[in-house]
Amino acid sequence: MINAEIEARYKAFLAEQGMLFTRERATILEAVYKREDHFSADDLLFHMRQDGMEVSRATLYRNLKLLCTAGLLLEADFGHGHTHYERAATTQHEHLVCEKCGCVIEVSTARFAEAVQQVAATQGFTVEHHQLRIFGTCKKCQKK
Ligand SMILES: [Zn+2]
Ligand SMILES: [Zn+2]
Ligand SMILES: [Zn+2]
Fold first, then answer.
1. Which domain holds residue 111?
2. What separation in Å is there between the alpha carbon of 126 and the centre of ligand 1?
3. Structure pTM?
């Protein structure tokens, strides 16, 4: 379920752009907020069609971009040659990306967040957000 606050934020953003919160946009927002993982646009499209939702690839791509601009969705590049998306509602975390199986593990530590702030502060820089991706081999793949 989409929470009312997210929907309200999206509606306000669309209104600012002179755009409407159409049935299609509501459907896409709902599909996106059902996901708790890091999905690609094509994977989302596949599951939406499986659930009987009719949406064109171009429309979905446009809407994902829009949700990113609205700050409701985050983009991440895991070196797969396509963009991954995740809901922006989750707390700040870093990504461990396995280069063998492609799995993505979320990790977070307050110490890292502090270090980011400290490094930025040395340059008088204000941090809005940051992205760190650590590439390597996951536990499962190391056993193979
Ligand atoms: Zn991927
Ligand atoms: Zn792996
Ligand atoms: Zn994540």
1. 94-143
2. 31
3. 0.82
